[in-house]
Amino acid sequence: MTNDHHPARRVGMLVPSSNTVLEPYTSAMFATFGEDASVHFNRFRVVEISNSGASRDQFQLETILEAADRLAEANPHCIAWCGTAASWLGLEQDRALCRAITERTGIPATSSMLAYDAYFSHFGVKRLAFVTPYLSEIQSTIVANFEKQGYQISAERHLKDQGNFSYGCYPPERIADMIRDVAPSQPDAIAIICTNFRGAPVAAALEVELGVTILDSVSITAAHAMRLASLDPGRISNWGRVFKDFATMPLDQTA
After folding, report:
1. Do 121 and 51 have their domain in common?
2. Residues 129, 92 share a domain
3. Does 160 reside within a domain?
4. What CATH number does the domain containing 109 carry?
């Protein structure tokens, strides 16, 4: 499906329409590669995160596939769905979506939550703390979903915000305080679940300060997509250890 006359590796990303965080942060991460790589975005409508029918309807398969079709026209080497809805709707939602994207476009596909799943499996992460901006009804569903998968949730913090645009308005320092709140529970990793939340810029410094792995949704999706596009995420610095970690993972464990 791809046209490789130009040696650059291309990554396509599907983005919620009201997200203002993911594109600038991801572009900054990819800037490390210079002309060797580029990242391309397409949006579909996501304006509310709740358990309402209207919120769930935003994640209809056909809507996302139409956005993937447009990305496929840029001949990317992989497509990533940069959203965390599967954390409350169930991981099978993303597995089915990524299968459908690949069947339709011939391009390997992943998602933010599948990136987390690959990381947790490879590194044996079992004890987790969560930081999110979500409503309590969403947060409790996320916790329950992970507990059903055998994870122990050591602590969580959430902002009870219906979002989605508003999530991007909280400063990185607010997320840093939430991370500090959950760190004493001694998790294997702290997951910042939301791609419109400004956790990525503070992750590296907080990993040093707190001595715990911090996995931001924007960063882990970028690292996973880089790996799938045959780029070396280990070249990325100052955004947390997740990039170095993904660089050590076998490709068959990142697909």
Report:
1. no
2. no
3. yes
4. 3.40.50.12500
- How much is the pTM? 0.91
The pLDDT tens digits of the residues spanning 20-57 come to 999 999 999 999 999 999 999 998 876 555 555 555 55
Helix intervals (H) in the chain: 22-30, 53-57, 61-72, 86-89, 91-105, 112-123, 136-148, 172-182, 200-210, 217-228, 242-247
For residue range 199-237, list pLDDT tens digits in order.
Answer: 999 999 999 999 999 999 999 999 999 999 999 999 999
67 & 187 share domain: no
Long-range contacts of 182-185 (CB under 8 A, 24+ apart): 182/129, 182/130, 182/131, 182/154, 182/155, 182/156, 182/157, 183/129, 183/210, 183/212, 184/155, 185/129, 185/154, 185/155
- Alpha carbon 43 to its chain centroid, in Å, reads 15
Q: Which domain does 35 fall in, by range?
A: 9-113+218-240
In a domain, 228, yes or no: yes
pLDDT band at 177 (very low <50, low <70, confident <90, very high): very high
